[in-house]
Write a structure and sequence with these properties.
Number of helices: 11
Largest sheet: 7 strands, mixed
Helix content: 40-55%
Distance between the termini: 21 Å
Number of strands: 9
Number of domains: 2
Shape: globular
Radius of gyration: 21 Å
Strand content: 15-25%
Length: 307
């Protein structure tokens, strides 16, 4: 088998956010957090921290959005009698007004679970949150569509990614970036949410060895193919609680929030996604038997949709 690790590392570097992008994002989100922490509105804020792929260091270039979790004191808003929490839409609208006041020339949108600040170079999603009693890793966030507060665990997600990355010799996060790039290059009707891709990889490699990035790609593609009932290269004795067949679509959140990250994926999208999984797995296999190292590299690039 040809060793393509050097080239894969170069591919990772080519899709990672640049230092300039990271500095720009850092300035923008820190400035917003400082502004929100002022005045009467700031007195209701208990804490704020980054969330999402940018915080977990699994983002790919460009950094076009950053997520901020803002932990609030629920007593700062009128609360419902049955759970002591503010009305979800009310708190989202309150955050939108506070951000518009501080950014009068920028567009601000209320979304389902966050408020988006649209800057020229970056979108910042601000997520109000209430800490769950006895847990710093879990919060409740507002969901305007269901008019409920739902459980989320951004700090747990970051800790899980870092733990697996350490256990796998620093190879997990680069692998996730390559997989996210691959997913982003699929047709719009075939890709999954980036966090679903990361979660599948986390569920797999928290217990499966990741000796090289090249082997990790092959194992990821083959494992996902197995969950859809396709012929496989490896013997998979565990399903890692993932189902991607025609009668069941399930990728449970590893942080134990109860969320199914592919709950709304229809059969057509699932089928197209799996077809691309199998194709990329088979191309990775061709890299093993390529006549030259250069041909092996081309096969790997093709499997990742980088050529």
């Amino acid at each position: 088998m040809w060793d393509c690790e050097t080239e894969l590392r170069k591919m990772v570097r080519s899709i990672e956010p640049t230092s300039a992008q990271k500095r720009s994002a850092s300035r923008s989100h820190n400035y917003l957090r400082d502004l929100l922490d002022t005045g009467e509105f700031g007195s209701r804020i208990l804490d704020s921290y980054l969330s999402g792929s940018y915080a977990r260091d699994t983002a790919i270039s460009p950094i076009d959005d950053v997520d901020i979790v803002v932990v609030v004191d629920p007593q700062g808003w009128p609360r419902r009698l049955w759970n002591g929490h503010p009305d979800p839409d009310r708190i989202l609208q309150s955050f939108a007004r506070a951000i518009r006041y501080r950014y009068p020339l920028s567009k601000v949108y209320v979304q389902r679970r966050s408020v988006r600040l649209n800057l020229n170079h970056l979108d910042i999603d601000v997520v109000p949150a209430i800490e769950m009693a006895g847990s710093r890793n879990r919060v409740e966030i507002p969901d305007a569509d269901s008019n409920r507060w739902i459980v989320s665990a951004p700090r747990a997600h970051a800790a899980i990614a870092s733990s697996i990355n350490r256990a796998r010799g620093g190879r997990f996060k680069p692998l996730v970036k390559l997989l996210k790039w691959w997913n982003s290059q699929l047709p719009k009707s075939a890709n999954l949410k980036a966090f679903a891709i990361e979660t599948i990889a986390a569920r797999l490699f928290r217990s499966v060895e990741l000796p090289t990035t090249q082997e990790g790609l092959r194992r990821f593609f083959d494992f996902v193919a197995s969950r859809a009932g396709h012929a496989v290269l490896y013997q998979w004795n565990e399903d890692h609680d993932i189902q991607l067949n025609w009668w069941a679509h399930e990728v449970p959140d590893l942080a134990g929030t109860g969320s199914n990250l592919v709950a709304h994926v229809d059969s057509g999208r699932r089928g197209s996604f799996i077809n691309h999984i199998v194709r990329s797995r088979d191309i990775m296999l061709q890299a093993e038997t390529a006549r030259t190292h250069e041909a092996a590299i081309r096969y790997v690039g093709s499997a990742l949709r980088m050529l």
